[in-house]
Design brief:
By secondary structure, the protein is α/β, with parallel strands linked by helices. It is built from 18 helices and 27 strands. The protein folds into 3 domains: 43-204, Rossmann fold (3-Layer(aba) Sandwich); 257-437, Rossmann fold, CATH 3.40.50.12780; 442-545, GMP Synthetase, Chain A, domain 3 (2-Layer Sandwich), CATH 3.30.300. Helix 1 (21-30) packs across helix 2. It is globular and about 70 Å long. 50% of the residues are buried. The structure holds adenosine monophosphate (AMP).
Length: 546
Amino acid sequence: MNAYDSGLGKNAANYAPLTPLDFYERAARVYPDHPAVVHGARRFTWKQVRDRGHRLASALAARGIGHGDTVSVLLLNTPEMVEAHFGVPLCGAVLNAMNTRLDARTVAYILEHAQARALIVDRELAPVAAEALKMLGRELLVIDVDDPEYTGAGERIGEVEYEAFLAGGDPAQSFDFPRDEWDAIALNYTSGTTGRPKGVVYHHRGACLNALNNSLLWDLPRHVVYLWTLPMFHCNGWCFAWAVAERAGVNVCLRRVEAQKIFELIRAEQVTHYCGAPIVHSLLVDAPAEMKRGIDHKVYAAVGGAAPPQAVIEGFEAMGFDITHAYGLTETYGPATWCIKHADWAEKPPAERARLNARQGLPSVLEKGLSVRDPETLQEVPADGTTMGEVMVRGNVTMKGYLKNPEATAAAFRGGWFHTGDLGVMEPDGYVKIKDRSKDVIISGGENISSLDLEDVLYRHPAVLAAAVVAKPDDKWGEVPAAFIELRPGVPVPGVKELTAYCRERLPRFAVPRHFEFGALPRTATGKIQKFELRQRLKSQSAIDV
Ligand code: AMP
């Protein structure tokens, strides 16, 4: 042991576990009267949010819920969801924010797998929850949230209503969690586009660091006014649930993504920032001009969760919003890379600027490494912008692992890297560009076709609202690309021949789709197109051959 180690250990005076729970305590202390949450007629300051969060922790603790227990929630983006991000981990428990579009069977599976001790449920989601609880066949504490902004159907199913539950808690009770920054804070099940969902476990340290990453990489201002277009169940709102507290910002809540409501809130609350999947942004780009009138302050949007077509990025420029691209997975606490802009990009032609911004970008400040490697040999590929490999990350904002699934955890961390399952290239300037997910590469006649590149081309056709390309097995070529297209209403419908000719002009011949289907695309709750379902559909439906 050298002199620098001897007698210089960690103690309570020089070391404390990193946790995002400190953020809301600080916001309440420094800005007690600053607005923290806005939802219709309900408005809470940071002091009120802190007290409500503490009441929740205290009331849960009084029911014997504590260290290592799971509290599941089926909540929309309402004030209760913000409070749960603090109150649940404060009593030592782990927050399991479930995807609100899941069916009862999957909800029951998650409640069972997570061994949930309590469920907090919005009245709108009570029917699904009730069915899931029946399947689960065991008792747990169920707390109903009756949001005044919701006027539709749905009975209360719990033993207690949320406000009454809070009333039983003591805001002055103190807690000493987390005891270790490696303690779990959240459990997020992957979207489950295929197979059984896996439970991704986050620790306090990672949640704290990725919240800080968001503040740093997106230059979030103090008192950011943040609109909740991104579901908070998706990677805890990409850790923005905690980042907004760190900035003592305003959480502008939103139950449902609707263009009219979004523009109204941007205007009325002077929203500065929001995030979402490409589909959310397309919705805003495509909204009628009169909806957008009267917004004269700068709005910053972050796009991620799926690759944004360059057309969306170009559309944003035209709208005057600033758009930044981020990439990540549930396993990386949401954003793992940000496409940091350079000043000289502003002088580039719009199409080139859009190309640069459509790249997934650079690792976040507090993540250690981002690399593109051969998935078998783990050899790094050259940064030439053309050699494909698997995107891998390592460091501080990678999950603890998958709950009760050591095999999947070991496979994901093989060789000391987290394997994302996304395929991409490293460009010479160190920016990563994703080309595909491993299972989405189309190999036709020995040629690798990026379904994303192909989709980018299709998205540029004026009649195409959304496009997804998957591989279709083919006797001659092995696989051929099949395109599924959602048409833009009010635009002349193109024929298959026209679209084929359009693609032929822009793509190598082997990459031109051999099959087209038209209609609404199946999407997950987070806006990702369910290619799995499209592949199934290809098997059961007849495609139009070219
Ligand atoms: P999830 O865990 O549900 O967030 O899904 C993560 C996956 O979404 C990644 O592995 C990618 O395939 C995809 N994804 C997320 N963000 C992006 C992005 N900016 N560009 C391309 N794909 C993305």
